């Protein structure tokens, strides 16, 4: 498939403390594999994946399929290095380790960073608990995490990059939120120009992300 052969380029960003499993999660999502090694990310990296997304057609009611190129930005767990990248992302995977209460407590700090640096005050976010397979080491109750997610009004998933549980679902849910926001913030829907053809993906990429904000 040629590089430009897609309808939308969507940039998502994973953030959270060092070691929560951001790189491993993204690797599972893009390559369906588990990496046991811990190599801390330096600065920022990204992975890519193409998916089909069913959205609204030009008439706003009919359904049609779009080719979506997802860029998944993988940040280092040191906030000072990566907040500059928050502005360009359209959606966020806010991650903590289910075996680390500290990483869960730090979700609030990451949320503040997000609110200060993202494209708007209420960006699209999915809260992701990682390492759900390590049941014996669990240190965060599902109830605690769900309560926090409810308070922020965002979806919550408990995932395992080892088994693959809910990894795809977490990303798909975020993609859905981002695409729906674009539909709301672009007159006639993001998926349509007057001639009914999808907006060129490069226009989406180059346009200021802030225009997506419908809040
Ligand atoms: N058992 C288990 N281990 C995991 C899971 N996800 C990640 N790990 C392990 O946790 C360690 C850290 O994972 P990384 O993906 O490197 O963590 P990170 O958040 O990218 O870390 P930084 O790059 O330093 O920010 C690695 O040894 C992974 O194999 C999981 O779902 N289950």
TrEMBL record:
Its EC number is 3.6.5.2. It is found in: Endosome; Membrane. InterPro entries: P-loop_NTPase, Small_GTP-bd, Small_GTPase, Small_GTPase_Rab. The keyword Acetylation applies. It comes from the Eukaryota. The keyword DNA damage does not apply. It is a lipid-anchor. This is small monomeric GTPase. It comes from Dissostichus mawsoni (Antarctic cod).
């Amino acid at each position: 498939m040629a590089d430009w052969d897609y309808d939308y380029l969507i940039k998502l960003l994973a953030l959270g403390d060092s070691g929560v499993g951001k790189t491993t999660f993204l690797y599972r999502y893009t390559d369906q594999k588990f990496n046991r090694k811990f190599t801390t990310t330096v600065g920022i990296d990204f992975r890519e994946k193409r998916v089909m997304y069913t959205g609204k057609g030009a008439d706003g009611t009919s359904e049609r399929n779009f080719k979506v190129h997802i860029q998944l930005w993988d940040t280092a767990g040191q906030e000072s290095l990566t907040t500059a990248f928050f502005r360009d992302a359209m959606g966020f995977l806010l991650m903590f380790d289910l075996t680390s209460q500290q990483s869960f407590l730090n979700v609030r700090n990451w949320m503040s960073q997000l609110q200060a640096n993202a494209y708007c005050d209420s960006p699209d976010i999915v809260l992701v608990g990682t390492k759900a397979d390590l049941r014996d080491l669990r240190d965060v109750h599902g109830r605690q995490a769900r309560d926090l997610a409810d308070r922020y009004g965002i979806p919550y998933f408990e995932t395992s990059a080892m088994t693959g549980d809910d990894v795809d679902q977490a990303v798909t849910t975020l993609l859905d939120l981002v695409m729906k926001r674009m539909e709301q913030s672009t007159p006639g829907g993001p998926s349509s120009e007057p001639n009914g053809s999808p907006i060129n993906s490069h226009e989406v990429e180059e346009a200021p992300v802030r225009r997506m904000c419908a809040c």
